[in-house]
Specification:
heterodimer; A: 6-stranded mixed β-sheet; 5-stranded antiparallel β-sheet; globular; B: mainly beta; 7-stranded mixed β-sheet; 4-stranded antiparallel β-sheet; 11 strands
């Protein structure tokens, strides 16, 4: 079982819609959760971090964490074509020597 | 602003050559990492360093070595480049952000070994 799992997609949404990206993790002791955005041919860019159960909002982005169900999600409101990228979920698990474990990423396409 | 730089964006080397990839961060971060990223395989950790002169093997260290002589600089060395080391190489550094570590990547070096 992979430690961090994401639906690889591709996920397509129309411009202006809400894009919902999901991630599950296996280590119940995980404490820190991150979302990275990666444009084709570029390096990952940190866009959100979340540590507590509930929602965290930053502009059009909302991260949601549910530790009991071991999932973290990213909502992108009013999606724009410029949001088209691969989104990587990353977790610091309890026994990982504080290293990030990455999911394989979800490819998002926002259609004009 | 966080700044991680890598010495080259694109690099082409021949099989058997010794290759040096340089990474520099200007945030006084103690922790630095080298990953490679390949289609279908995701990000894989090669080596990391939590302090100057310190290095630890990641998940795929074979064929690589590293050097950390100064806090701001972390170098990845391919002792004898092979075609299966053709990849995107990503350096990252991180620092404590109040509750957890936050990690930032450099722009990447796309290495082709022919």
């Amino acid at each position: 079982q992979k430690e961090v799992e994401q639906n690889s997609g591709p996920l397509s949404v129309p411009e202006g819609a809400i894009a919902s990206l999901n991630c599950t993790y296996s280590d119940r002791g995980s404490q820190s959760f991150f979302w990275y955005r990666q444009y084709s041919g570029k390096s990952p860019e940190l866009i959100m971090s979340i540590y507590s159960n509930g929602d965290k909002e930053d502009g059009r982005f909302t991260a949601q964490l549910n530790k009991a169900s071991q999932y973290v999600s990213l909502l992108i409101r009013d999606s724009q074509p410029s949001d088209s990228a691969t989104y990587l979920c990353a977790v610091i698990a309890s026994g990982s020597a504080r290293q990030l474990t990455f999911g394989s990423g979800t490819q998002l396409t926002v259609l004009p | 602003d966080v700044k991680v730089t890598q010495s080259s964006r694109y690099l082409v080397k021949r099989t058997g050559e010794k290759v040096f990839l340089e990474c520099v961060q200007d945030m006084d971060h103690e922790n630095m990492f080298w990953y490679r990223q390949d289609p279908g395989l995701g990000l894989r950790l090669i080596y990391f360093s939590y302090d100057v002169k310190m290095k630890e093997k990641g998940d795929i260290p074979e064929g690589y070595s590293v050097s950390r002589e100064k806090k701001e600089r972390f170098s990845l060395i391919l002792e004898s480049a092979s075609t299966n080391q053709t990849s995107m190489y990503l350096c990252a550094s991180r620092a404590w952000a109040g509750y957890s570590y936050e990690q930032y990547f450099g722009p990447g070096t796309r290495l082709t070994v022919t």
